[in-house]
């Protein structure tokens, strides 16, 4: 992945939002939380990930730059809620009731499991496979697993093995 530099003003807006949400959580639970480490190294179509044990949030720099305020308003609380759910409740379902509670009750943000950002600029090469009823788009990772004989994919509709077009 080529390195993408996130403008300083955008990084500052990310930090401001993250601190604002941390303050809301601290007020609700009457305890202080450390600031998570934020990196801009998330690749692929994921907007961000929370590394629970490292207290770290990884953000996709390309999707951040392309979707700025919407990304900050949705992704920062989403990933921070994962960290807080783990901190407060231990190992729980990633988008379970604890995470949902933090998003909706504490952060006052709609709890959505996935983002709706366009991903054409971050999507890796796709490979077209087919069965008897339709075409399927497989990622390079899935394609390579097939080539190495590690995986075999079948259509969920007809149950037929997928074949490279």
From TrEMBL:
Localization, UniProt: Cytoplasm
- A GO molecular function held by the record: zinc ion binding
Note the Pfam families from the entry.
SprT-like, Zn_ribbon_SprT
Q: Write out the catalytic residues in the record.
A: 79
Q: How is its cofactor bound, per UniProt? A: Binds 1 zinc ion.
Q: Which GO terms describe its cellular component?
A: cytoplasm
The text of the family note is: Belongs to the SprT family.
Q: What is this protein called?
A: Protein SprT
Question: Could you tell me which species this protein originates from?
Answer: Xenorhabdus japonica
Taxonomy of origin reads: Bacteria, Pseudomonadati, Pseudomonadota, Gammaproteobacteria, Enterobacterales
């Amino acid at each position: 992945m080529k390195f993408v530099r996130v403008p300083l003003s955008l990084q500052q807006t990310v930090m401001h939002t993250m601190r604002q949400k941390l303050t809301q959580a601290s007020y609700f639970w009457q305890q202080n939380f450390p600031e998570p480490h934020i990196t801009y190294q998330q690749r692929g179509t994921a907007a961000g990930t929370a590394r629970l044990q490292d207290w770290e949030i990884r953000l996709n720099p390309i999707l951040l730059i392309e979707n700025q305020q919407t990304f900050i308003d949705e992704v920062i609380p989403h990933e921070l809620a994962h960290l807080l759910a783990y901190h407060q409740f231990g190992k729980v379902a990633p988008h379970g009731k604890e995470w949902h509670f933090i998003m909706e009750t504490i952060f006052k943000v709609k709890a959505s499991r996935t983002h709706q950002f366009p991903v054409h600029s971050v999507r890796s090469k796709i490979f077209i496979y087919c069965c008897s009823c339709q075409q399927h788009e497989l990622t390079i990772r899935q394609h390579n697993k097939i080539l190495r004989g590690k995986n075999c994919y079948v259509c969920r509709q007809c149950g037929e093995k997928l074949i490279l077009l």
